[in-house]
Amino acid sequence: MRMIRILFLVVSILFSSSNALTQDFCVADVKAVDTPAGYPCKNPAHVTAEDFVFDGLKMSGNTTNIISAAVTPAFVAQFPGLNGLGLSMARLDLAPKGVIPFHTHPGASEILVVLRGAITAGFVSSANSVYVKTLRKGEVMVFPQGLLHFQLNTGKSHANAFVSFNSPNPGLQILDFALFANNLPSSLVGATTFLDLAQIKKLKGVLGGSG
Ligand code: MN
């Protein structure tokens, strides 16, 4: 009986100490710097319901731009309550022929659900296999972490989708922006991509690159 009591005591101490190490949440202190481990926590005494609510996805994004599309993120920088929880969202709006060009999220896989219209989406694997599908309302597609992928409105009307990521900060790197929207010299872009100089200069002009 005494052994059982001691055992119970040990177990309850173990449980209470492990509980002491866990926190319900760590709302981002977005004034600090984000790190691979996330933002530092805002003082819990100052946390309110507003920290766990984000209303930025209810409005359609502005699609009057070069891609005729908009990505509205609900990542940790916009939505501090996500910090440390391993997930986030975004809203995609695509006018007819609008496109979210080839891009990757270095930090997360993505799952997309179409709410309106028809979206042709696809990704390319590390083995360069292509996986493409046209999705309609209620249909879902997943894009594995780090792989290049795209979404294109192939319907006749406005298309809209919500995406979710398994990181509060999935990152977003757009292939054409990486190649043509910065000051990487055109000669180096040509040498590393095998594209014609004239095409490189044209795309740098369109996307705001130089060099
Ligand atoms: Mn994506």
CATH topology of the domain at 68-169: Jelly Rolls
Number of strands: 10
The quaternary organization reads as single chain
Say which molecules are bound, naming each kind only once. manganese (II) ion
Helix-and-strand structural type: alpha+beta
What do these coordinates show?
- By secondary structure, the chain is α+β, with helices and mostly antiparallel strands.
- It has helices at about 1-20, 175-180, 185-195, 195-205, and strands at about 70-75, 90-95, 100-105, 110-115, 120-125, 130-135, 140-145, 150-155, 160-165, 175.
- The strands form two sheets. The chain has a five-stranded antiparallel β-sheet with strand order 1-2-9-4-7, with no helix packed on it.
- Helix 3 (about 185-195) crosses helix 4.
- It is globular, with a radius of gyration of 23 Å.
- The model has no long low-confidence stretch (mean pLDDT about 90).
- Bound molecules: manganese (II) ion.
- Manganese (II) ion binds near residues 110, 143 and 149.
